[in-house]
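Q: Sequence in, structure out?
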Amino acid sequence: MKRVFISMMILFLILPGANSGKRVQAEAVSKLDSTYFGKPEQLLTPLMDAVSIFNGAVGTEDGKPVMYTTTKGLPAQLNVMDIEAQKLLRVIPLEGAENTWAHEVLPNGDLYIATIGGGAKLWKYSPGGDSAKVVATFAGETFPFSITSDQGKVYVGTYPSGKVYQYDPDTGEVEDYGRMIGESSQEYIRSLAVIGDDVYSGTGHGKIIHYNKSTGEKEDIAASIGEPGHIYDLDKVDDRYLFARYELSSNGYVYDTQEEKWLDVVIPKARGLHIPEQSEGGKIYFMNTENKLQTFDLDTLNVEDTGIVYNSGFRGVDWVEFGTPDLPGKSLVTINFSGYVTILNLEKKTTIKTPVLAEGTANVINKIETGPDGKLYMSGVQTGKGAIYDTVTKTNKSFNMGQADSIATFGDKMLFGVYPEGDIRELDPGQEPSDENPKKLFTIGEEQNRISSIADGGGKAYIGSIPFYGELGGALTVYDPDASEHDKVKVFRNVVEDQSVNSLVYRNGKVYGSTTINGGLGADPRAEEARIFIWDTQTEEKVKEITLSIDGLEKPEAIGELSFGPDGLLWGAAIDSIFAMDPETLEIVKSRKLYESLPLSAWNKIELEWSNGLLYADFSGNLTAIDPETLESKQVARVYDFSVGPDGNLYYASRENRTMLHKMEVRTVSDKEEMTVTNHHFERPKKDNAIPGWTSMFKADDQAQYVISGEEHSHGRKSLKIKDTARNKSVALMSDPIDASEGEVFEASTNLFIKEGTGSSMVRFYDDDGKEVYNQPVHTDTGLNKWQKVSITAEAPEDAVTLRVICFTTSYAMGTVYYDKVEVKKLLFN
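A: Exactly. Output:
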């Protein structure tokens, strides 16, 4: 595969004169030849000032209680808040980190934070400081979901290996206790408690592993409970009891570590994510799903209401004594997802909510979709905000929305599939966003939590989904807004046994679907190969199911999005290939492998969109334009998600900056004007020991040299040969200057023969003083011992008056390379 690296440099040279050109008709080989993709333009951060908080902890600074919490963003930011004064004291960026679910304050007051982003890291912050530092990293781990401490040591539980680590602040040493389960490829330590030598891990797999540090023995103490799913909460109480909550059932259980047995009680409607680690009056305090603060009596095993209400769960909670008339005795203090601190006072049975104290950050964009009104609808990752961007007025507005993993037009409305509960929400673009717009329509249920696809057809919405963590068996859900209440939502699980639904598309009473063998994270697949199926919307049955058979692709684990093209064919993508099928027979009409060795995600959904005769596909972040006639393709950007706007331009979140909305202008080329490149075939003999039409930029020697050679040639009898055998030297020849003006677009190409090493070419633009104002290079190190055409398309920037083409080897590369037929054409647009 050709690897192309594009960079920008500023160099300064004074160049004379320029050459003119003649017009030629654009070659009609591929639709791509007549399409120009402009330079990326940064528009705005649509999810700016979003506050997304998953955890916090109370500490003390200057004798006053403070709340420590971290907002999700790029980077994540530690917020230190004075609880009594309701004031934000300081914000500290955690560079390279994106998020955290885990804060822990040690007895000496130091704060430790386990962060996500750039690998699993452990940070330390000392009270009153103006910075935090990384004190430990955990190789191979990406999500350190849980943290706790005991006797001054810090413990961290991770994903995907499901390990527990101990960090000793006194020595800086990290001890790896290994995998707590070790049965599947992806395992979670979702919650963690340590009492003495005993480590208790709440996993994502229904198990609570008791690990003895002294003996190394492990035991699943939850085997008798027999519940599936995540143990999101596992908190120690009084250094004796464990309070465990199962996510799927919301059942709470209490374990006596001294008696080594579960108390004879099941606490219903328990809510996450934490409880205080000290009981009060022999009672454990916890929130329930009805927003009531309740107690569990360790002696009587009774559950009682406190009369205190809080409209959320505890994202970290601690006891604080304020000692004021308004807040006598003990209070529970916690942080909300949206950034406000809440105080629950036991004596007065009151709840005090501060204003939002956390500072918002730019949240990353998750999905982008063009709505029926031509506006862009966007969702974020793990945030409570979405955004609407008007491409005409260039204005942006936010609205309340969870993490939508899919967005689709449904009639004149927008539907959002929201993670993690599998909710479907509806927004009316004709109305202003409000508390009622968008509104929740329903929750899919049936153990589904990720909405992968929504298709509009025949007045109904067809919804594909992926199940919860550790589960297999996705679903096809039918939503009919005109049906009776009982029949509005129908869920058909395991349409393809043990597989998740990756994509759905509707046509003439049938739904065409693709699958992935993967289920929820942490579930090992049972199937070997993804499928394509047809669903009859009248009989509500699957009528056909096939495996995908195309050249160069064997048993794909996932088949990406399906889409009907203007040609009536059913198009799809899988792993690294594009294909088109006959929708009646599902036989392959055409296909092509486009990439090699792509990194693959768990579900590898490859999004497809059509515009102006081209098919756009996102192959693992490589936004690719495809000519459906020739199957020629071009990688145009590195994206996280994209959409084609109503103006035909590309809008996307880039891989380099997912918080920023980018625009790439797409224009149709009507003609190409050929510019004169003097001696572009290198046939003219040397004159005064120089190559006519070309200037050497560096002094040649035995290690870095160039000659006119007859050894290899694609046209005529000669070519330019460059031989570079030194890492610290460069060989570069530049053409005579060619006229250029701001906004003009040029296509430069050269035939390249690489005998060994790397060959490079470049377009450079210069101002009236001969100073470089912009350059665009391409470096090629594959396709050895054959002629290949390498092209660069570049737009002349402000102040540009000339351009030159440069054939070279870089100072960090070596090679023996031949150049022939160097051409420059100016693109002309309608």
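Residues 53-282 form a domain with the Methylamine Dehydrogenase; Chain H fold (CATH 2.130.10.10).
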